[in-house]
Target: NADP-dependent succinic semialdehyde dehydrogenase
Amino acid sequence: MAIATINPATGETVKTFDESSDEEVEAALALAVETFASYRLTSFAERAGWMRRAADLLDAEVETTAAMMTTEMGKTVASARQEVQKCAKACRFYAEHAERLLTDEPADASAVGARKAYARYQPLGPVLAIMPWNFPLWQAMRFAAPALMAGNVGLLKHASNVPQTALYMQDLFERAGFPRGAFQTLLVGSAKVEGILRDRRVVAATLTGSGPAGSAVASVAGDEIKKTVLELGGSDPFIVMPSADLARAARVAAVARTLNNGQSCIAAKRFIVHEAVADEFEQRFVEAMAALRVGDPMEDGTDIGPLATESQRQDVVELVGDAVAKGARVLCGGEVPGGAGWYYPPTILAGITPEMRVHTEELFGPVATLYRVADIDEAIELANATEFGLGSNAWTQDEEERARFVRDIEAGMVFINGNTTSYPDLPFGGVKTSGYGRELSAHGIREFCNLKTVWVGE
Model:
């Protein structure tokens, strides 16, 4: 795939970029090691000052940065602004809390025959971040902010269709005052990732992306004995029980399925509704989805823009076509619009059976699958009948049902009566083939630290 900005709303190639040469990659690796040697010794106060400056720059440049992301991958400009602001929030969160989150942890010295005993968090070194296009700034930032505040240095290999966002990240941190080499962007294709990851100067890696990509990175890292954090695909359930506020649940369901034009790993994808309220929820859900406006992502009134790439839309078309051919009913949408751009309408499919690909595969577009169940046991069984385990939603006012969902849903995150999202304050990640490790919160900043045991005798 060429490294280029191709506007998804028009199909026009805006700008192309040369891939980093082997010599440029080598220079970046050498600089990362050189910078880490001194950067790891900087104080939390110094790093926090630079990180707050990065947040200030993000706030000041929100309009131009949002427009850049919308041009590169088609998200609505309103959601792009929110993404920029969320990145600024994460920068400030880690600037404020990193020192406390990484403070020494005292142990019972007398129990281990020491005068003093404690555990200390120390940075590992250059970390390779392999990031996707769907939240091009946020997903890179949720690695960068904690990693830099912990004293690590970053090497970013971004998706080939968001090169301007990738280069902006390096420029942002340099302008904020971070030492040159603390965060570098490598404009390389996927073919060069293995060689970079195997380089002994790279000590760890994090990847957000597909299951096959995660498996490939984990295999190489395992062979090299290097730490990895993987945030992979999801097929999140959205369960609606009889006690739920159906009007609100249906409104949130439409947003949950079409967030980021439906291209989100934690978007609700499978809507599992108790049969006692299935008819009413279906009517409300269809109305909410059909009311969404598809159009130019640069216009503030647009709810849904184009899918990011032509191949991405083709994947959605094929999955929907397979379901319809095998008996699924289209409740709304389902037809590719004419004209330029890679648009696809909000779509709901009902009558899903296990033979259909949409039953087991992740659908990365504004298409919902709707199921009916008889009780909570069937709801949980269906929710867990997937290889994925990232996020989940459950809507109920019943405390016992809430407890069941929290206990029994196989996912890294469970949101009750609210849409799944990410916060700097809370750990983010999944189980099963949705990956391992955690981003954000205290857990995220500690992932790429050496937890060093210190024992001091008399």
Summary: The two ends are 61 Å apart (CA to CA).
